[in-house]
């Protein structure tokens, strides 16, 4: 059965969860490899600030039965790509929580929030072409596949599938 989860804003105490997600070779295999440990406190600080300012939605996925635990993360932010400002969604689920529908549920929840909020327009996602579960999430939530695209993630090039969805009509 799928565990019940809630989404909450990232907080200063999430450094350990970030380290587990971003500095681990297996977690980052489809994201260009792990990032250096020494930048994580800074990254959490910036994410907490951007989430508090409502500039980006940076959510931790928390199991409803254990609010001190973290199962993963899902984020929606806006940035410039090829001279165009776009909204992008990204996600990660820690190994012990994977394969139980948590990633898909969290992405759907954030897209429902985006639909209600109205500011984000089309939402883009760029999973690696070999990332079966992430491409599965896009396909089954109603994203359309636009193209294969090389993007820079955490400073490194990565071949991705470019998916997009209009949460107002496609979800
Ligand atoms: C990708 C990731 C977020 C998936 O989260 P998850 O909670 O395990 O995924 P779910 O259980 O919600 O499954 C999502 C879909 O993928 C499918 N799926 C899950 N694992 C799969 C696998 N190993 N191979 C193929 N499909 C798979 C599921 O069946 C589901 O599709 P469906 O609804 O059509 O049945 C998680 O594996 C992860 O964090 N990996 C490492 C980091 C990463 O790659 N992040 C994503 C960057 S875009």
TrEMBL record:
Record's family? Belongs to the acetyltransferase family. RimJ subfamily.
Key word Kinase present in the record? no
Looking at the record, the residues that make up the N-acetyltransferase domain are: 5-163
A Pfam family: Acetyltransf_3
Name the record gives this protein: N-acetyltransferase
SUPFAM superfamilies assigned? Acyl-CoA N-acyltransferases (Nat)
Native source species: Actinomadura darangshiensis
InterPro entries listed in its UniProt record: Acyl_CoA_acyltransferase, GNAT_dom, N-acetyltransferase
Q: Known CDD domains for this protein?
A: NAT_SF
List, in alphabetical order, the Gene Ontology terms for molecular function in this entry: protein-N-terminal-alanine acetyltransferase activity
Which Gene3D superfamilies does the entry mention? 3.40.630.30
Q: Which GO terms describe its cellular component?
A: cytoplasm
| Keywords recorded for this protein, A-Z | Acyltransferase, Transferase
Source taxon at top rank: Bacteria
Q: Signal: present as a keyword of the record?
A: no
């Amino acid at each position: 059965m799928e565990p019940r989860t809630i989404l909450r804003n990232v907080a200063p105490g999430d450094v350990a969860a970030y380290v587990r997600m971003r500095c681990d070779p297996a977690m980052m295999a489809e994201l260009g490899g792990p990032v250096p440990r020494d930048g994580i406190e800074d990254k959490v600080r910036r994410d907490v600030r951007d989430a508090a300012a409502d500039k980006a939605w940076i959510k931790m996925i928390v199991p409803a039965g254990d609010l001190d635990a973290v199962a993963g993360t899902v984020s929606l932010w806006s940035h410039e790509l090829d001279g165009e400002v776009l909204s992008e969604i990204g996600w990660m689920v820690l190994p012990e929580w994977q394969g139980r529908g948590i990633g898909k549920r969290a992405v759907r929840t954030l897209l429902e929030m985006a639909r209600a909020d109205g500011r984000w327009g089309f939402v883009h996602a760029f999973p690696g072409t070999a990332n079966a579960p992430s491409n599965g999430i896009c396909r089954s939530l109603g994203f359309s596949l636009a193209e294969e695209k090389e993007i820079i993630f955490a400073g490194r090039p990565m071949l991705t599938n470019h998916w997009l969805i209009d949460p107002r009509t496609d979800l």
